[in-house]
Structures are given as structure tokens and as C-alpha cells.
Known about the structure:
By secondary structure, the chain is mainly alpha-helical. The protein is about 70% helix and about 0% strand. It is built from eight helices and no strands. The protein has helices spanning about 5-25, 30-45, 55-75, 95-105, 110-120, 125-130, 135-155, 160-170. The longest helix is centred in the middle third of the chain and has 22 residues, at about 55-75.
Amino acid sequence: MKIPFERAVEQHGATVLRVCRAVLGSGPDADDAWSETFLAALRSWDVLADDTNVQAWLVRVAKRKAIDVTRARGRSPIPTETLPDVADHSVTLVEDSDLWDRVSALPERQRLAVAYHYFGGVSHVETAELTGSTPSAVRRAAADGIDKLRASFEPGTQRKRDIHERDEQH
């Protein structure tokens, strides 16, 4: 039996916003993608199969809305004035814009793997389906992305793999 839509928003709203922020960066574009995700979800809620993994489905919808926002960025002017305050979606969120900026600066495959798997709670298999990749490639991209994020917060440290590769060369 499918849960009421309001409960889906309560249960998965923070996850969807984390995915939107990881893909689009912190700011109004992520907030817009979050809103568009749930508007689209509401329109399709009645025809959604009862056995659907709602979280994975919402992450997939969020991915498509984030792509729409990314495409729209290329067609619209870049704002030069101060952006409005972030909307309150009544969910607990990490508000560290530095984190979201660092995640959005990752290469696309790493950014999407980190966003969908770690922020969205989607399995490597489902992330591979979303990104058109393989589970092993997603696992590697996610690990590389997490390594880069850790290294960006700890200047002067090297990733274990880099050290291992250097040792193998000698």
C-alpha cells in the first residue's frame, strides 16, 4: 500500500533536497528543482505502482528536474545581484554552502555518484541506472568523489591511492 503523498514529502524531502544541492549547488536552482520534483511527483502520485521504491523514484525525478535546471541555465542570463535567502522547506538540512560548492565542483560522474548514493540513499545499482553506467563504475566514481571531498577539507593530505601508486612506481 502506498503512503500518503504528504508523508512521502516528510520522509524524503530532505533526501531530494540534498540530491538537488549536490547536483546543482546550494541556492535557488536547487530549491527550484526540489519544488519541481514534488510538483511532478504529485501529478503522478495516483498512477504510481504500490510496490514502487518511492525514495529511488523521487531521486530519479529530482535528477530529471536538475537536468532541466542545468539546461535552463544555459539559456538564461547569469544574475549579478544578491540571491534571495534559501527557502525553508521544514526539513533538517546541512546548510554548509562550502560543502555544496565543493560537491558541485566535482567532475560530473563523481558528483552524480556522490549525490545519488550518499545524499540520495540510492543503491549503486540504481545510481548506475540513473546515470547510464555500471554499478562498479558508480562505486569507483563515488569513492573517488568522497576522496576528493575529504582531501579538499584536509589540505596537505594525499589520498591513499595516490600514495600507493607513487610507491608502486619506485
